């Protein structure tokens, strides 16, 4: 099922709780009613961790539909476009937090160790029953601490969050291997962040290499080493991802999408998109509707 809007709204924590101060913890059922989250598409400026205790929840995230059930735990990155649906009562907890909240204690390298939190990614965790119970217990402690809001609660919540992310990150490491945060990985993470901020108007690697104070050749070499892709291809992939989101989730015309993504020439945008996806933007949209 395709959900479309005139445009994609950008959801901030302040839209959910004006006094959020970097973190919000609430029952999932309550979250679904805030700002009409149910059936409503949003891009978001915060990270999310969801845990289902009972019931079922359908989620659409970047064109893919996911069914969540009892004891499922999912992380959603910032900037991911998603919506939720549920037809039966659902019980669980959701933790929403900004990078700034986490970084008040931990340095930049730490958050990128948790590779399931990286931009434009959603991850479901396969945990043992004991691991699930520990996560439930920890999230319940966080809910209590969030609700009492006493002096020092933010620091307590930050510590709890670090423990929870370490537990989930351990599962990622076990299944997919540890991402070594060396100097090259730091450069790539910085490059990916810059791309996410500038891809609509800056398509050439030279801009990013200059911002990172490295040569284009070196940037390309470490991209191939760490991501198995050239730096130019990484930029193009980000543009195509946003084009797919707009084609899939909005009623905007191909011309409007082209201009929004910085293409002054619509035929060139169509050629660019087709070269990456093997079909024109209109063909892509029609295929999603069938």
UniProtKB/TrEMBL annotation:
Which keywords annotate this record? DNA-binding, Transcription, Transcription regulation
- Report the superkingdom from the record: Bacteria
Q: Name one GO molecular function term.
A: DNA-binding transcription factor activity
Recorded hits in SUPFAM superfamilies, A to Z, give: Homeodomain-like, Regulatory protein AraC
Q: Name one Pfam family in it.
A: HTH_18
Domain HTH araC/xylS-type: start-end pairs: 189-287
- Coiled-coil features, chain-numbered ranges: none
PANTHER family, alphabetized: ARAC-FAMILY TRANSCRIPTIONAL REGULATOR, TRANSCRIPTIONAL REGULATORY PROTEIN
Protein's UniProt name: HTH araC/xylS-type domain-containing protein
């Amino acid at each position: 099922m395709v959900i479309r809007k005139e445009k994609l709204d950008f959801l901030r924590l302040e839209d959910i709780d004006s006094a959020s101060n970097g973190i919000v913890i609430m029952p999932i059922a309550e979250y679904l009613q805030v700002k009409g989250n149910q059936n409503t598409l949003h891009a978001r400026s915060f990270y999310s961790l969801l845990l289902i205790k009972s019931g079922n929840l359908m989620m659409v995230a970047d064109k893919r539909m996911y069914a969540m059930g009892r004891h499922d735990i999912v992380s959603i990155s910032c900037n991911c476009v998603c919506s939720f649906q549920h037809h039966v009562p659902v019980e669980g907890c959701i933790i929403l937090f900004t990078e700034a909240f986490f970084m008040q204690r931990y340095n930049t390298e730490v958050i990128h160790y948790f590779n399931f939190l990286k931009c434009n990614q959603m991850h479901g965790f396969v945990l043992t029953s004991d691991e699930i119970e520990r996560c439930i217990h920890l999230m319940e402690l966080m809910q209590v601490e969030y609700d009492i809001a006493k002096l020092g609660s933010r620091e307590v919540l930050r510590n709890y969050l670090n423990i929870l992310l370490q537990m989930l990150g351990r599962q990622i490491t076990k299944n997919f291997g540890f991402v070594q945060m060396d100097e090259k990985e730091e450069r790539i993470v910085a490059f990916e962040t810059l791309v996410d901020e500038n891809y609509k108007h800056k398509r050439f690697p030279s801009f990013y290499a200059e911002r990172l104070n490295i040569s284009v050749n070196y940037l390309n070499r470490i991209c191939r080493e760490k991501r198995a892709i050239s730096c130019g291809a990484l930029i193009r992939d980000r543009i195509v991802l946003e084009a797919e989101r707009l084609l899939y989730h909005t009623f905007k015309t191909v011309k409007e999408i082209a201009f929004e993504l910085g293409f002054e020439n619509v035929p060139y945008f169509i050629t660019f998109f087709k070269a990456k996806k093997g079909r024109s933007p209109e063909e892509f949209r029609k295929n999603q509707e069938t």
